[in-house]
Amino acid sequence: MLRTMEPIVIESAIFTKAIIALFPASMLFCGAAVQYFRGRSTWSLLQLLGAGCLVVVVIAHIFEALQAIRWMQWGIEHSIGHYLDLTSAILAFTLFPADTCFKRWQSNARV
Protein backbone atom coordinates (compact mmCIF):
# COMPACT_ATOMS: atom_id res chain seq x y z
CA MET A 1 0.00 0.00 0.00
CA LEU A 2 2.82 2.42 0.81
CA ARG A 3 4.41 1.70 -2.57
CA THR A 4 1.35 2.89 -4.50
CA MET A 5 1.27 6.17 -2.58
CA GLU A 6 4.83 7.18 -3.57
CA PRO A 7 4.04 8.41 -7.11
CA ILE A 8 1.17 10.52 -5.79
CA VAL A 9 3.55 12.38 -3.48
CA ILE A 10 6.00 13.00 -6.35
CA GLU A 11 3.22 14.14 -8.68
CA SER A 12 1.89 16.38 -5.94
CA ALA A 13 5.33 17.98 -5.58
CA ILE A 14 5.56 18.49 -9.35
CA PHE A 15 2.08 20.00 -9.36
CA THR A 16 2.89 22.36 -6.49
CA LYS A 17 6.11 23.55 -8.16
CA ALA A 18 4.34 24.03 -11.48
CA ILE A 19 1.52 26.04 -9.92
CA ILE A 20 4.07 28.22 -8.12
CA ALA A 21 5.99 28.72 -11.40
CA LEU A 22 2.79 29.65 -13.22
CA PHE A 23 2.57 33.02 -11.46
CA PRO A 24 5.98 34.43 -12.54
CA ALA A 25 5.61 32.94 -16.03
CA SER A 26 2.22 34.60 -16.40
CA MET A 27 3.63 37.90 -15.14
CA LEU A 28 6.44 37.72 -17.70
CA PHE A 29 3.90 36.99 -20.42
CA CYS A 30 1.69 39.91 -19.39
CA GLY A 31 4.68 42.26 -19.21
CA ALA A 32 5.88 41.15 -22.64
CA ALA A 33 2.35 41.63 -24.04
CA VAL A 34 2.18 45.17 -22.67
CA GLN A 35 5.61 45.95 -24.08
CA TYR A 36 4.65 44.55 -27.48
CA PHE A 37 1.37 46.48 -27.70
CA ARG A 38 3.15 49.70 -26.73
CA GLY A 39 6.00 49.42 -29.21
CA ARG A 40 5.01 46.72 -31.73
CA SER A 41 8.58 45.93 -32.72
CA THR A 42 9.85 42.63 -34.06
CA TRP A 43 12.06 42.18 -31.03
CA SER A 44 9.23 42.68 -28.55
CA LEU A 45 7.18 40.16 -30.55
CA LEU A 46 10.00 37.63 -30.17
CA GLN A 47 10.03 38.36 -26.44
CA LEU A 48 6.27 37.80 -26.29
CA LEU A 49 6.63 34.48 -28.12
CA GLY A 50 9.40 33.44 -25.73
CA ALA A 51 7.25 34.28 -22.71
CA GLY A 52 4.40 32.31 -24.28
CA CYS A 53 6.69 29.31 -24.68
CA LEU A 54 7.63 29.60 -21.01
CA VAL A 55 3.95 29.45 -20.08
CA VAL A 56 3.62 26.34 -22.29
CA VAL A 57 6.48 24.70 -20.32
CA VAL A 58 4.72 25.40 -17.02
CA ILE A 59 1.37 24.15 -18.33
CA ALA A 60 3.08 21.00 -19.63
CA HIS A 61 4.36 20.30 -16.13
CA ILE A 62 0.89 20.86 -14.69
CA PHE A 63 -0.53 18.37 -17.20
CA GLU A 64 2.27 15.93 -16.36
CA ALA A 65 1.46 16.12 -12.65
CA LEU A 66 -2.26 15.70 -13.25
CA GLN A 67 -1.65 12.96 -15.82
CA ALA A 68 -3.96 14.82 -18.19
CA ILE A 69 -3.94 14.11 -21.92
CA ARG A 70 -2.36 10.71 -21.37
CA TRP A 71 -1.73 10.06 -25.08
CA MET A 72 1.06 12.68 -24.94
CA GLN A 73 2.93 10.46 -22.44
CA TRP A 74 4.19 13.29 -20.23
CA GLY A 75 7.55 12.66 -18.58
CA ILE A 76 8.57 9.78 -20.86
CA GLU A 77 11.59 10.26 -23.12
CA HIS A 78 10.98 10.34 -26.88
CA SER A 79 7.29 11.14 -26.45
CA ILE A 80 5.23 14.00 -27.85
CA GLY A 81 4.89 15.57 -24.40
CA HIS A 82 8.65 15.42 -23.81
CA TYR A 83 9.44 17.08 -27.13
CA LEU A 84 6.75 19.74 -26.65
CA ASP A 85 8.22 20.59 -23.25
CA LEU A 86 11.82 20.54 -24.51
CA THR A 87 11.13 22.60 -27.63
CA SER A 88 9.13 25.16 -25.68
CA ALA A 89 11.90 25.50 -23.09
CA ILE A 90 14.57 26.00 -25.75
CA LEU A 91 12.46 28.58 -27.58
CA ALA A 92 11.59 30.38 -24.33
CA PHE A 93 15.18 30.80 -23.24
CA THR A 94 16.26 31.80 -26.75
CA LEU A 95 13.47 34.20 -27.71
CA PHE A 96 12.63 35.87 -24.40
CA PRO A 97 15.96 37.69 -23.94
CA ALA A 98 16.02 38.78 -27.63
CA ASP A 99 14.47 42.21 -26.98
CA THR A 100 16.84 43.00 -24.10
CA CYS A 101 19.90 41.85 -26.04
CA PHE A 102 18.88 43.85 -29.10
CA LYS A 103 18.29 47.04 -27.08
CA ARG A 104 21.66 46.65 -25.34
CA TRP A 105 23.36 46.03 -28.68
CA GLN A 106 21.64 49.08 -30.16
CA SER A 107 22.67 51.32 -27.24
CA ASN A 108 26.31 50.15 -27.54
CA ALA A 109 26.25 50.86 -31.29
CA ARG A 110 25.23 54.48 -30.66
CA VAL A 111 28.14 55.19 -28.31
What does this structure look like?
83% of the residues lie in helices and 0% in strands. The protein is mainly alpha-helical and 111 residues long. It has one domain (2-110). The longest helix has 38 residues, at 2-39. The chain is elongated.
Keywords, please?
mainly alpha; 83% helix; 0% strand
How large, in whole angstroms, is the Cα Rg?
18 Å
| Main structural class | mainly alpha
Shape: elongated
Give the SSE string: HHHH
Q: Whole-number average pLDDT? A: 84
Number of H/I helices: 4
Termini gap: 68 Å
Task: Lay out the secondary structure.
Blueprint: H1 2-39, H2 42-66, H3 80-95, H4 98-110
Short description:
Helices cover 83% and strands 0% of the residues. By secondary structure, it is mainly α. The radius of gyration is 18 Å and the shape is elongated.
